[in-house]
Amino acid sequence: MRTRIIGTITAAVTIGLLAACGPNDTGATSPDTPSAGQDTSRAADGKAGNAKAGVPNFVGMGLQSAQDGAQAAGFYTLTSHDSLGRDRMQILDRDWKVCSQNVKAGSKQATDTKLDFGAVKLDETCPAKDQAPPSAANGIMPDFRGKSVKAARGALDSGTSITVTDAGADDRMVLIESNWQVCTQSPAGGAKLSGQPVTFTAVKFGESCP
């Protein structure tokens, strides 16, 4: 009697398991279902790379607020530069305001597009047009007068020997070169650069050259 009962229970359990599996459940993975460990990142990245968003108008905003707004809109590749061409670093973004942006406001762009903000300090007036830093293209000495000493140094070859002195009578040390403007230079603008030393005299921005 015990053997017959056990056999009956075993047969019932087996039939139940087969019914639960169904005729198509053979252990094979459905084509639309990724198996454990399957790499789905390529498809996800492809969709993310095609994402587009409208570019807001950032002109007139504080630089920090503009950066926050850009990220909220989906843009995370951000940079900024000095609109006055003095090559100053925007260290404390809340002290700067946006004068220009490299991508037109209202246009739809891929969200990996780099947004570049031209900025000046809060107490400064935006220029009518961003002032590009000087460049010693083709080995010709630019006219650096009125440009920042830092921008002038950056335009020259890194191996150039440069001497900077105060154009005024106080013989001050020229420490933060982006705060000083060139008054005189040697060689003069237009001269051929061939590795010769360069000298500048300078005063602070807001001061007049003697």
What are the salient characteristics of this protein?
4 helices; alpha/beta; 210 residues; three-stranded mixed beta sheet; elongated; 22% helix
Architecture overview:
- By secondary structure, the chain is α/β, with parallel strands linked by helices.
- Helices cover 22% and strands 20% of the residues.
- It has helices spanning 2-21, 41-49, 63-72, 149-155; strands spanning 52-54, 78-82, 96-101, 108-110, 115-121, 162-166, 180-186, 198-204.
- The strands form three sheets. It has a three-stranded mixed beta sheet, covered by helices on one side. The protein has a three-stranded mixed beta sheet with strand order 6-8-7, covered by helices on one side.
- The protein starts with a helix and ends in a 6-residue tail after the last strand.
- Residues 1-48 have low confidence and may be disordered.
In this structure, how is the largest beta sheet organized?
Answer: 3 strands, mixed
- Give the rounded overall mean pLDDT: 84
DSSP, total strands: 8
Low-confidence stretches: 1-48
How much helical structure, as a percent, in the residues?
10-25%
Order of strands, widest sheet: 2-5-3
Number of helices: 4
Structural class: alpha/beta
Q: Radius of gyration, Cα only, in angstroms?
A: 33 Å
SSE string, helices as H and strands as E: HHEHEEEEHEEE
Shape: elongated
Kindly report how far apart the N and C termini lie: 121 Å
* Percent of sequence in beta strands: 15-25%
